[in-house]
Design goal:
mainly alpha; 2 domains; 11 helices
Length: about 260
C-alpha cells in the first residue's frame, strides 16, 4: 500500500510540474463566488487528512513512538506540496477539452503517459480503493474490539472475539455484514454514493472535533491549546455545510451521549 500510494503521489506530482512547465501565460478566470460550493469543497478537501486518525489505531504496533510524530509531519508536508502543485496544474493547465467538459483527473497524466493514461489510472485507483478499504476496516475493527473489552453485553460478546494471532474477527464480521447491507441499499437505490460521502464527511469531522476538544482540555496554556481552539472553530464551520439530516443525527447522538454520562 505504501509503495502504491507513494508511486501515485510521485506520478501526479511529476505530471503537475510538467504541465506547469509547459505554460507560457499564467492566467485564471475567477468564477462567481458561491458559499455553498465553497463549503462543499472544504468537505471534500477534508478527505486528505481523515486517514491519519484511522492510522492512529495501529499505533500500538509501532515500537518507537517518535516514528509516528515524524511520519505525521512528513505526511503533512508531502500532502500539502502535492495538493498545491495539482491545484496549480488544474487551474492553469492548458487542457484540450477544458472549455467543453468538466475536469477529469486523467488529463493530468495524459501529457506523459499518453494512450496508457486511462489504463494506468484505472489500475492505481482500484489498488488504492482496495488498500484504503482494508486500512479503514482494520483500524475501525481494532477500535471496536478495544471498546468491546470494556463492556459486556450481547453485542460486545460478538465484537470482542479474536483469533489466536490477535485479529479482531468478531468486529470484522460485524463490519462485513454492515457493508453487505449498505451495498444492497445502494443497489436498490435507497442510498446513493453522495449520501454515503455526506454521512462520512459529517462523522469524520465530528470525530476530529472530539479529538480537538480533548486536546483543549488536556493541554494547558500553550501553542497547541490555542491551535486546537482555532482548528475546532474551522472544523465546526466546515461541518455546518453538511446535510441538515446528518447534522440532526450528530446532534441527537451528542445529546444522548452527554445525558447518558452525566
Amino acid at each position: 500500500m505504501l509503495i502504491v500510494s507513494s508511486t501515485v503521489a510521485i506520478i501526479f506530482l511529476i505530471s503537475s510540474i510538467y504541465i506547469l512547465s509547459q505554460i507560457d501565460d499564467f492566467s485564471i478566470v475567477v468564477p462567481q463566488f458561491d458559499v455553498q460550493k465553497f463549503g462543499y469543497s472544504f468537505l471534500i478537501i477534508f478527505w486528505s487528512i481523515v486517514g491519519w486518525e484511522v492510522i492512529g489505531n495501529y499505533s500500538n504496533d509501532v515500537k518507537e513512538t517518535k516514528t509516528i510524530k515524524y511520519a505525521v509531519i512528513f505526511s503533512a508536508i508531502s500532502v500539502s506540496v502535492i495538493y498545491s502543485f495539482i491545484a496549480l496544474a488544474v487551474c492553469f493547465g492548458d487542457f484540450a477539452l477544458k472549455e467543453v467538459e468538466s475536469f477529469k483527473l486523467v488529463w493530468l497524466i495524459e501529457p506523459i503517459f499518453g494512450q496508457y493514461s486511462d489504463f494506468l489510472l484505472a489500475i492505481v485507483s482500484l489498488i488504492l480503493c482496495i488498500g484504503t478499504l482494508i486500512l479503514f476496516v482494520g483500524g475501525v475493527a481494532r477500535l471496536i474490539f478495544a471498546l468491546s473489552e470494556k463492556k459486556t453485553n450481547f453485542i460486545t460478546m460478538k465484537t470482542a472475539k479474536k483469533l489466536k494471532n490477535g485479529t479482531p474477527i468478531g468486529a470484522l464480521n460485524v463490519l462485513s455484514f454492515i457493508y453487505v447491507v449498505t451495498l444492497y441499499l445502494v443497489y436498490i437505490d435507497i442510498l446513493t454514493l453522495d449520501n454515503l460521502v455526506a454521512f462520512a464527511d459529517g462523522f469524520f469531522i465530528s470525530n476530529a472535533i472530539i479529538g480537538l476538544v480533548t486536546a483543549i482540555i488536556l493541554f494547558e496554556k500553550s501553542f497547541l491549546r490555542y491551535a486546537a481552539f482555532v482548528l475546532t472553530f474551522l472544523f465546526a464551520s466546515i461541518l455546518l455545510f453538511s446535510n441538515i439530516y446528518i447534522l440532526c443525527i450528530i446532534l441527537v447522538l451528542f445529546l444522548f451521549t452527554y445525558f447518558k454520562n452525566r
